[in-house]
Amino acid sequence: MDAASRPAVVIDNGTGYTKMGFAGNVEPCFITPTVVAVNESFLNQSRSTSKGNWLAQHSAGVMADLDFFIGDEALSRSRSSSTYNLSYPIHHGQVENWDAMERFWQQCIFNYMRCDPEDHYFLLTESPLTAPENREYTGEIMFETFNVPGLYIAVQPVLALAAGYTTSKCEMTGVVVDVGDGGTHVVPVVDGYVIGSSIKSIPIGGKDVTHFIQQLLKERGEHIPPEDSFEVARKIKETYCYTCSDIVKEYNKHDKEPAKYIKQWTGVKPKTGAQYSCDIGYERFLGPEVFFHPEIYSSEFTTPLPVVIDKCIQSSPIDTRRALYKNIVLSGGSTMFKDFHRRLQRDIKKIVDARILASDARLGGEAKSQPVEVNVVSHPIQRFAVWFGGSVLASTSEFYGACHTKAEYEEHGASICRTNPVFKGMY
């Protein structure tokens, strides 16, 4: 049996979470935090051993290479033992620590997927605006360390758009609003080609919403153990947050009927095991509001998400704009807030309608412009739309022809990963 007759392995590495599974499945087999816990004591031991005792030094080095954990296991190890240090290999969508990333992939393949990398083609994802060198490093690790037969590196938003294949009609033209843990990308795609010059990036993601909720709880004086506060804020965000249509109305609702809207959170202190509880009030709607009014969170970036999406479409070629407004696709866990798509659609429609009115007023009624249809698409799979798009792409027969193979890598080197056989135009 050759590798092309087996399902490909699809790994979507995100800043916060990594989704992995086999092509052809609807959901990833594992969703795990992108974090590695490395045992520092071995590294120090290998440095401190005397130069003469090379065997002890070598074995300490080998142990340091083997003694590490990833995902939830890494988080629990670092809590329970002070010898393990956490390392987050990806920041804002870009890999920054390649050693940690290699270790992370190693456990993904052998401990989680439990497959031999030499028997499967691999599809990995990368965020838009990634330097081509990063693709080369990825190719090098995959071909050299894991000896994979074939590799395909896909751009996340294109896969998120491909996730819509299974819906009623296949549209490869649209704007992908990918709100990840580390940042947000707004990417226009026309007929499967990314319009690179119009990509917009926002330094606000899921992690910022969590930080903001953590900050609100702290300022209000809720009694949450400091070492647990980030985790509690994340769980509150995922369980109770929603998007509101008007902040003032929402404040009034909460003030009038606190019993209905204010929730209780109970947790256990990690050190003592004692129970504690806290109220969850305004955070429920103020958290997601960060995307629509960023100034409440930070003064560094103040442009709301709907304005950024509008600017992105306006900077695209004029003949594609109507089609782009018609198909705004959401992707990523932070778009899962209740009514997020409705609020986004309403705000973008306001901007577009105001522009049309201004244009009509300027022309003095001589020419009437056609109304522009704005549609924000929300579907149940948007939480891991990128992974699902990868699964769809990697289960087509054309996929194996588009992959870079081991033979090509041996002939030309890592530079083959710079080009993308399917989307040659842009990437």
Sum this structure up briefly.
The chain is α+β, with helices and mostly antiparallel strands. The protein is built from 17 helices and 19 strands. The radius of gyration is 24 Å and the shape is flat.
Topology diagram in text:
Blueprint lengths: L8 E5 L3 E6 L7 E4 L2 E4 H9 L5 H13 L1 E3 H10 L3 E4 L2 E2 L2 E2 L2 H15 L9 E5 L5 H14 L4 E6 H7 L11 E6 L4 E7 L2 E2 L5 E3 L3 H15 L8 H12 L6 H10 L1 H4 L1 E6 L6 E6 L2 H7 L15 H10 L6 H6 L1 E4 L8 H24 L12 E2 L7 H10 L3 H5 L1 E2 H7 L15
Parallel strand pairs: 1-9, 9-10, 11-17, 17-18
Antiparallel strand pairs: 1-2, 2-3, 4-5, 4-6, 7-8, 10-19, 11-12, 12-13, 12-14, 15-16
Mean pLDDT: 87
CATH architecture of the largest domain: 2-Layer Sandwich
| Global structural class | alpha+beta
Write down the CATH class of the largest domain.
Alpha Beta
Beta content comes to: 15-25%
Radius of gyration: 24 Å
**How many beta strands in the DSSP annotation?**
19
Family: Belongs to the actin family. ARP3 subfamily.
Protein name: Actin-related protein 3
GO molecular function, one term: ATP binding
InterPro entries: Actin (IPR004000), ATPase_NBD (IPR043129)
